[in-house]
Design goal:
Blueprint: E1 4-13, E2 17-25, E3 30-34, H1 41-49, E4 56-61, E5 64-65, H2 71-74, E6 76-79, H3 91-96, H4 104-117, H5 133-146, E7 151-155, H6 163-180, E8 183-187, H7 191-197, E9 200-205, E10 208-213, H8 215-220, H9 225-230, E11 235-238, E12 250-253, E13 258-260, E14 270-282, E15 287-293, E16 296-302, E17 310-315, E18 320-321
Parallel strand pairs: 3-8, 3-9, 6-7, 7-8
Antiparallel strand pairs: 1-2, 1-4, 4-5, 9-10, 11-12, 12-18, 13-17, 14-15, 14-17, 15-16
Helix pairs in contact: 4-5
The structure holds adenosine-5'-diphosphate and magnesium ion.
Adenosine-5'-diphosphate is lined by residues 13, 16-17, 35, 37-43.
């Protein structure tokens, strides 16, 4: 049986927005939620943690219906983008805030363990204002875990930090999640972050689930152009350009599936002759090349900058997503 079940959840903001979804999660799973701004990511977390109530539907954790439970009784942890620590308390007091019914020595022992878990041993007596942004977010994580939540929700926890630190801390969070086995729902606007750490990814689309699956599945077999474009680069091409196909049907092709002027083409490759190079950008490890074929734009990678205006594109047939819908 699933650990978390959201059954036909609806939240209606009349005239503005409707959230409408069902999904379930296993215990110990890390699910990342991505989607455009305003697609309902934060609304979903509000319903789960109980700061807002669904108009319809049930939320069940471990077989218990929690839809009508208060925030306190749900035992769901939250970590937000802004570091919501108590500035007047030191680190230890912040972490111990959510621990209930434990004797002082036990609280202190657990605090030491939690600080070790987030890689900040010995920070017990630091003041909140002395912490860097990355340290504050680790303490917020330790505090959330201290209350032994049944599920931990994270809403863009790293958005306020710079890119290298974000990259490091996402790995730290994933490692902590694996070590503790906590079930996590992690909202991010960064698809690379989602792909890097998630067991499964949910793509939100206008209050509904556009797609849900493993990162590999969603990236390689997008079920719509919306999901395909939101999860990476790629090109939509009329099917009739690559095979006899169906009129008005589109196929979708990721740039890695294309090779420019391939020297040893396979019999199975689809070839588009005389594509016109529009521009190429050096990315550090290769070139990102934009091309035009008939009336469509196509992107591809290349290890060298194309030296002619017209090139031939070789596309791996097994990497083409057929008849993709909007
Ligand atoms: P995301 O986190 O994906 O950016 P949100 O869940 O915050 O999106 O918002 C989804 C939509 O719901 C937005 O259009 C937002 O304006 C609307 N919304 C959120 N909360 C409320 C509310 N309390 N009342 C009315 N509309 C709301
Ligand atoms: Mg949000």
């Amino acid at each position: 049986m699933a650990y978390l079940e959201c059954r036909d959840i609806k939240r209606i903001f009349p005239g503005k927005f409707t959230l409408d979804l069902s999904f379930s999660m296993d215990k110990g799973e890390l699910m990342c939620v991505i989607g455009p701004s305003g697609s309902g990511k934060s609304t979903l977390l509000s319903l789960l943690c109980g700061v807002d109530d669904p108009d319809e539907g049930r939320i069940v954790i471990d077989g218990t219906d929690i839809t009508d439970l208060s925030i306190q009784k749900r035992r769901i942890g939250m970590v937000f983008q802004d570091f919501s620590l108590f500035p007047s308390m030191d680190v230890a007091a912040n972490i111990q805030y959510g621990m209930r019914g434990l004797e002082k020595p036990e609280k202190e022992r657990r605090t030491t363990d939690l600080l070790q878990l987030v890689g900040l041993d010995g920070y017990e007596n630091r003041r909140v204002h002395e912490l860097s942004g990355g340290e504050a977010q680790r303490i917020a994580l330790a505090r959330a875990i201290a209350s032994e939540p049944r599920i931990l929700l994270l809403d863009e926890p790293l958005s306020a930090l710079d890119a290298p630190l974000r990259k490091h801390l996402r790995t730290v969070i994933r490692q902590i999640q694996k070590n503790t086995g906590i079930t996590m729902i992690y909202v991010t606007h960064d698809r690379e972050e989602a792909f890097a750490i998630a067991d499964r990814v949910m793509v939100m689309r206008g209050g509904r689930i556009g797609a849900i699956g493993t990162p590999q599945d969603i990236y390689n077999n997008p079920n719509s152009l919306f999901v395909a474009r939101f999860t990476g680069e790629g090109s939509a091409i009329p099917m009739t350009y690559i095979s006899r196909g169906i009129k008005d049907s589109m196929v979708f092709i990721r740039p890695e599936a294309i090779e420019i002027n391939k020297t040893n083409p396979s019999e199975d490759d689809v070839v588009l002759k005389d594509a016109v190079v529009q521009n190429s950008e050096f990315t550090g490890s290769e070139y990102f090349v934009r091309l035009k074929y008939k009336d469509v734009y196509i992107s591809a990678y290349s290890s060298v900058r194309p030296d002619s205006e017209k090139v031939d594109l070789y596309i791996r047939r097994d990497r083409i997503t057929d008849t993709i819908a909007e």
